[in-house]
Amino acid sequence: MLSKVKTTTLKGIDGVEVLVEVDIGNGLPSFTIVGLPTESVEESKERVRAAIKNAGFEFPIRKITVNLAPADVKKDGTYFDLPIAVGILSIIGVVKDQDKMNDFYFLGELSLDGSIRKIVGALPMVSSLKKGSKVIAPYDLMSEISIVEDVDIYFVKHLKEVVEFINGDRSIEPVRTDLTKILESEFLEEEDFSDIKGQYQAKRAVEIAVAGGHNIVMIGSPGSGKTLIARRIPSIFPPLTKEESLEITKIYSVSNLLGSGVVNKRPFRSPHSSATLPSIIGGGNPVKPGEVSLSHNGVLFLDELGEFRRDVLESLRQPMEDGFVVITRAKERVMFPSNFMLVAAMNPCPCGWFGDKEHPCTCSISEIKRYRNRVSGPIWDRFDIQIEVPRLLPHELVHDSKSESSKSIRDRVIKARIIQQERYKDTKIKNNASLTPRSIKAFIKLGHEEKVFLENASTRLGLTGRGFDKILKVARTIADIEGSELVRLPHIAEALQYRFDLSLNT
Ligand SMILES: Nc1ncnc2c1ncn2[C@@H]1O[C@H](COP(=O)(O)OP(=O)(O)OP(=O)(O)O)[C@@H](O)[C@H]1O
Ligand SMILES: [Mg+2]
C-alpha cells in the first residue's frame, strides 16, 4: 500500500515542494528511506520509529520504503520526520481520513517522545506555498510563520494531536498574525542620535548618506565616536515595510538566527575584521547567508576597515552593485538578497592620532602611507561620503547640550527618499547613490554657474570621472533634503567637503 504526504524543503531562501511517498509491503521487515544523505537517514528513522511508539501507536514490523520526490532537490533529514510518520500511520489505518490528510502540508521534526520540534527556514518554506494552502506546523514556529498571508496554518505540539486532528477527534483553529500591526507597534529604539554630543558635520553626513543610499566611511582617532555614530544609523532609516521585514525575517530564518519571531528592526551587523570570505558573502554546507545578507535592508558596519582582508573587501563589490549574492555549489545555485548600506570606520594612521588636536602621532609618513594603502582605490571609491570625525575635547563633551533626536532626522530622510522614488519611478534606479554615469546626465542638470564651479573644483582637486560623479550624486541628495528641484552651487560645495584623500598628497 502506498501513501503520499505533502511537505516542503528549503532552497536558499525559497521553499521547494516535496512529496513523501511511503510504501508498506510484505517481505522481510525493514525501514528504508531513499533520497536522503546517509547520516541523516539513520537519525530520521530512529526518531520516526520512537515517536510513533511513544505516541502510543504501533510501529509496523514490515517492509517500509520511503521515497522523497523530486529526487534532485537537496534534502536535510530533519525536515521529513513528521510527513514520514504521518505517511506510515495512514497506511496502517491510524490516520483514517486520507482525503483530509491530502489537504495539508506537514512540517516538523519529531522528538523521540513524539513531540514536534521546529525546523530551520520555515518562513521561506511556508511563504513559497500556493495561496490557500493548509499547513500543519510545530507550535514553536507560531511567532515566525503565522505572519504568512493566504496560507492557513494549524499549530501542533505532538504527533498524537496531528492524528486526532486529521481524524476529526480534535479541533484546531488556524492562527494568523497581522505583520502590519507588529511593525506599527512602537518599539523603543535604545540608541538615539540625541546621545551624541557635537559632531555636527558627521551627523549631517550620515543623514545625507541614509537619505540618498550612499555608503559612508569615517576616519578619526580612537574614542572620537565613530562606533557610537555608526550604531545609531539604523535609527534614522524609514520604518521597515512589510516586504522588507519579510525579506529579512526569511534570511534570519534560514540562518537559524530568529529570536522571538519576526525581525522588526533594521539589521546592524558588525563583523570582526578577521572575518572569512564565506562568513561575509555566504557559504557552507548547507549554504547559509553571510553578513552581506544578514545586513539586508540595514547597515553593514566594517570597523577598522584597513584590517579586513583584501579579498574580503573586494568580494563586497558584486553584492553591493547587484543587491544580491549568488553562491554556486556543485549541485546547487543559491541566491540571497544583499541590499545593505556600507558604513566603515578607520583610524587615520597606525597609532591612531594623526591630526589629533592634543595627542601627538608617533607614525612616520611611510608607515601612514602603508597603513592607508591597505584599502584599495576601487574600494575607497565605493564610499560616496568620506568624512573625518575629530575627537571632541573633554570640555566639549561635558558642555554640549542634548542634540537632535533620531526621529526628527528620520523625518527629513523620509521626505528626501519620497522625492527620489517619485523622480525614478519609471526607471530601475533606487536612489541617488545608484545613479549610473548615464543616468546622472539625464537626471542631474546643472546651470552654467554650477558647471563652471564644478569644473574648477575638479581641476583643483584632481577629481577622476568617478570622483566627479560621486560629487554630483551626493549634491543631488543634499538638494533633495532641501526640497530643491535643481542642484545648486551650495549643494555642490557641500558635497565637495565629503571626500577624504587617503594618499596624504593634499
Ligand atoms: N560626540 C560624543 N558624544 C557623546 N559621547 C561620546 C562622543 N564621542 C565619544 N564619546 C564617548 O566616547 C566613547 C568612545 O567612542 P567610540 O567607541 O564611538 O569611539 P571610536 O571612534 O569608535 O573609537 P575607536 O577608534 O577606538 O574604535 C563612547 O562610548 C562615548 O562614551
Ligand atoms: Mg570604534
Automatic annotation (TrEMBL):
One of its GO terms (molecular function) is ATP binding. Residues 212-393 form the AAA+ ATPase domain. SUPFAM superfamilies: P-loop containing nucleoside triphosphate hydrolases, Ribosomal protein S5 domain 2-like. It holds the Pfam family Mg_chelatase_C. Transmembrane segments: none annotated. InterPro entries: AAA+_ATPase (IPR003593), CHLI-like (IPR045006), Mg_chelat-rel (IPR004482), Mg_chelat-rel_C (IPR025158), Mg_chelatse_chII-like_cat_dom (IPR000523), P-loop_NTPase (IPR027417), Ribosomal_Su5_D2-typ_SF (IPR020568), Ribsml_uS5_D2-typ_fold_subgr (IPR014721). Belongs to the Mg-chelatase subunits D/I family. ComM subfamily. This is Magnesium chelatase. It comes from Caldisericum exile. The lineage of its organism: Bacteria, Pseudomonadati, Caldisericota/Cryosericota group, Caldisericota, Caldisericia.
